[in-house]
Amino acid sequence: MEEIVYKEIEIDKRAEKLARERNLSLLEALMVSKLLHPRLEEAYFSKDSLSFDLTIPNLEEASAFIANAVRQGKKILVHGDYDTDGIMGTTILYSGLKSFKADVSYFIPSRFEDGYGLSSCSVEAAKREGADVVLTVDCGTNSKEIQTELESQNIFLVVTDHHIPEKENLVDSILVNPYLGDDEETKTFSGATVGYFLLRKVAEKLGTSIPEEPFLRLCGIATVSDVVPIGSFNWHLCKKAFAALESSPSPGLNALLRKCPLPPFRCHHIAFYLSPRLNAAGRMEDANLVLKILLEKDSKKAEELVEKLEELNTVRRYLQNQMAEEIEKNLEDDKLPFIFCASERFHLGLLGPVASRLSQEKNKSVFLICVDGESATGSARSVDDLDITSLLREISSIFKRLGGHKRAAGFNIETRNLVKLREFLEERFKTLESAKRNEKTFLLIRPDEIEEAWNILGKLDPIEPSIKQPFLGIKIKNISSPRVVKDKHLLWNIPIKNGRSVSAFYFDAMSKIERMPSGDELIVGRILPDKMRSNPNFFFEVKDII
Fold first, then answer.
1. Which one, of 76, 124, 130, 80, lies nearest residue 104 by Cα?
2. How far apart are CA 165 and CA 180, in angstroms?
3. For residues 48 and 529, what is the distance between their CA atoms, to the nearest angstrom?
4. Is 103 in a helix, a strand, or coil?
5. Over the stretch 57-89, which tens digit does the pLDDT of each residue have?
6. Hey, is 332 helix, strand or coil?
7. Whether 398 contacts 417, CB under 8 Å
8. Cα(65)–Cα(54) distance, integer angstroms
9. The whole model's pTM is what?
10. pLDDT in tens, 156-167
């Protein structure tokens, strides 16, 4: 196993300047220096609120068309996607248009039967619903062929999306997509947020208004779940969304939030508790279950639906762990700068989360492929600043379908082309990767600064995903004897202020340490929300003892 080298972060010029000019404590100045993207500095220090004074190409034309369709009683089919962003966007557009008294229904494709985005199944769904208009959210940009099929049935297509356009497959109907313009801020939007912008503009055309809630909280969930970049708009959006989650009128959403650690809510609550549950439905069975949860008004029925989702999530976690462990056991060459693994045994719905987990654990880009005869479906996740979708577009001719973002991609490919893909990646990564130590950095804090660090993290949240977050290091004198949990984990308490203590938990410690910690120790890890305690409402997740 490669040795990890830990390096303490020292005060830099940016931190010194922030402390001096912004009158910050040295700890806050250092954390801001390392965790706040420079483009968010104005948002962090100003008292500005969320502003919708942004434009997306073709928003005016699309909103006028949809408003007319509503007035004329045309049947609108909202077409979403089975991931969290697509589900949130579908909920926003469907419930919003419903409030305008529109004749509207929704369709979420099956991951297993229909595949991603628009397909012939979309055309059949539109015909079945008697739709005059198909309005997409989080998909459709590169669906020229399906547009033609829809138009042959006299069904008009309006696309709202945030995926990168491909010239050869680009629809030529009304397309609302930030990537058609030059505004870098709107290019950070989730698909749900693009949909919400359209809804606001449709309301304006209809001479009415639409409230920010319950829509903003859904945009916030989508923003975190889809791991989009955090610009100023998204930063303010998430701040408002997380606060709104504490008083949601939705029985279903409230039941889901009770599965999370206690508020105040942060990105961690969404990314590690809420989003995996929301995605579990589409990964294991049918994403429509989540729509039903979010739209259900009866508390008892909502609870029942959430429990069904919880059962699916439990199965998802079990199978996901099995799949990840199996891949790790059978890695052919752990010295490669990326992980490439294809198998007929992979669960199609779990490629993405397993790829994400392995990329984080191994600090490598990951490509996992589920083989089904002559065809294969893959999911890729990147690390550092690698734009994984742009990389794969360099060899786009071998894919039957390819889409994604900077940090994640999905594709369909003929099985016979997997060798070509592997060879391309091996050659390309030679120029992308340079020899480097597995170096981890940490900010050194005192035990009595843990709570201050936790509060600063709350102020910084949401943190731009591309920022490689350092660990926190805590030097503890005469560390107390830890309690061994389930024969493999370590748990002990670190005294903080006002006679309180914070739990420190070292997961799977007994397989990682050579001796039990004692005396003076430096522990490195992260502060995370605590599901079990409310005062303090956080714990320290130990990653190493050095």
1. 76
2. 8
3. 27
4. strand
5. 999 999 999 999 999 999 999 999 999 999 999
6. coil
7. yes
8. 20
9. 0.90
10. 999 999 998 988
